[in-house]
Amino acid sequence: MNFLKGTKINSILRGSCPVCQNESMYSEKNPYRLKETLKMNERCSVCKTKYKIEPSFFYGAMYVSYPVGIMFAGATFILSYFLFDFGLITTYCLIVLVLFFSLPIILRVSRNIWINFFMSYK
Asked: How many domains does the chain have?
């Protein structure tokens, strides 16, 4: 994804520093290590940007997680109901499973989107 360097989408998808995009914001790359899913580095070691701008900064990411979850659910609905022609009950169960198993990814992407509202690439 080197061709996207300098764009917000690069920082959002990779979870990299929104200012320099050289280092991951998270101390653990694997979002499925549940004890460390949201554990972040305090600062970027390259540009020294502080990620937590103020106390409780990432509470706003909760509001971002709703539309991100809706996108996951909507994509699951379209694929299962229209493309694979599953019934409504099966589609509903698939949506619940997809949302459950993609929760760590949704949490991280929401944080990435939230911090990119307030910081830009330099």
From this structure: 1
